[in-house]
User: Fold Penicillin-binding protein 2 from Azospirillum cavernae.
Amino acid sequence: MKFPPFGLPFRSQSASTAPAPRTTLAAAMEQSRYRLMVTAAVVTTVFATIGVKLVAATLFSQGGEPRQHHALELDSTTTNRADIVDRNGNLLATSLVTQSLYADPKLISRPEEAARKLVSALPELDYKEVYGKLSGDKRFVWLKRNLTPKQQYAVHRLGVPGISFEREERRFYPAGNLTSHVVGFTGVDNNGLAGLEQGFSKRLNEDPATPLQLSIDLRLQHVLRKELTATIQEFSAIGAAGIVYDVRTGEVMAMTSLPDFDPQDPTGLNPDTLFNRATLGVYEMGSTFKIFNSALALDSGKIRVSDTFDAVHPIKIGRFTINDYHSLHRALTVAEVFQHSSNLGSVRMVQLIGIAAQRAFMAKMGFMRPTALELPENGWPLAPNPWREVNSMTISFGHGISVSPMHTVAAAASVINGGVFHPPTILRRQPGAEIPGEQVVSRQTSDMMRRMFRFVVADGTGKSAGVKGYVVGGKTGTADKQKGRHYQKNSRMSSFLGAFPMHDPRYIVYVLVDEPKATAKTYGYATGGWVAAPAVGRIIKQIGPLLDVPTVDENAPEILNATFLNAAGSTNWAQQAPNAPSSAAPPPPKGSTVASFPTPAKPR
Assistant:
């Protein structure tokens, strides 16, 4: 045992190592240091994590801009009805998410104050109507459907109890009036009420992610509507219809009916504006029906294009007499009957063919049933029953049977495209897909009809439809309108069915003008050759380049070999037929396209 040095007090080992007692202040300081250390560790961890994510986002995820396809993927799931687009993908109809305003009157304690606030935010609402709804006994009442974001914000700021919003969709039509009769429109609940919106309502709802693609080309639609509008204004007409048609596929490239409407707000309109003249309206087509009478005659094998028929003596049946609008006072070949639109020649041709054959041919052309077009507005033809001799005569020049413009165009396409009838469609046919078709006339008949189409424009009543380089052909038509049980002489439908290029037909352009009025510029005529043919020419001139149809030299040998026909019925352009009828008589004016209805014979 060691002892301390001399003079120092003695302390035991246990006494020297005992700890001093801890104070309250020391304990608090130690606890604070511990908490600070924990807090610092947490903050450091959080900021380290954020830093790592920022570095990963900026250096390893290709920048800070969000990828565009993410937004598109999100947008594609927001609506429950598919878009409608034209053949080039241009948007014709789409749905946007909106909010609609409703109320639970049981939760509104002061309906008069709530109604006053709502009307102040939405001035278009009627105070009495809103107050009546808010003070009623129902648990759910609509106040306004499809609010704009600004309107929704204004109502939301009011803070009125019992007022809420419901997510809905609203249909928008970017093309507006341009495609109104084709696309149609929906009601407030997004149910289709007209056009393709109605006809394909189930398809649009069941497959919202896949747009419905039409055969319509918005560019052609614009040209067609513009020219029809100009024609209506020029001739003070009450309406018009137009169609651009692909004769090889049956696709409707453009279709317009005027007057049209705004599909965004179709309520309260005159029913005439909602009426589709191109597909629903059925009319007596006048001399354009001579297309089918001539095709019937040639395809029967009983008549050749060079055969002649009496066009001098009127035809009497019962108390009616059939005359030509402008007679040439001589016999006419089949080519001239078509060229000059002779009623007498047409009747004598069908008399040789027979009533049964005529009726069967018209049925084969689709004139006894609605077309296959996918619109709900599809008119039923009006055909005579029984089909008697007088009916056969008048039908030969376009009276006594009523069909729609779409009927006329689809049947005419089969006459010039090689003889194959393709059902018309408003949907785009996919490249390489099989095109349904039925041979209705022979290729030889179709070839001759192409020549006759060209003959009308080159040297007949359709000259004003010609467009240099596009080898246009066609047929004029004018028919007096029937009002009640009588035909009105100054109330007519004037039309022209044009096709191009006639050496290799691709498209038909059809224009129908309802009740045009004659002008000084047209020398008092308001017939197809003066009214509709010039419009078709203007349309072809504008759409030809859009459709990539090349222009050609119309006098080139290969073009003449495919399209030439003269008055004698010869197709040899290099050598005129020696026995061709004299053409010294002046050509009839363009007014000769009227298909005059038989008039009562004068009493003897």
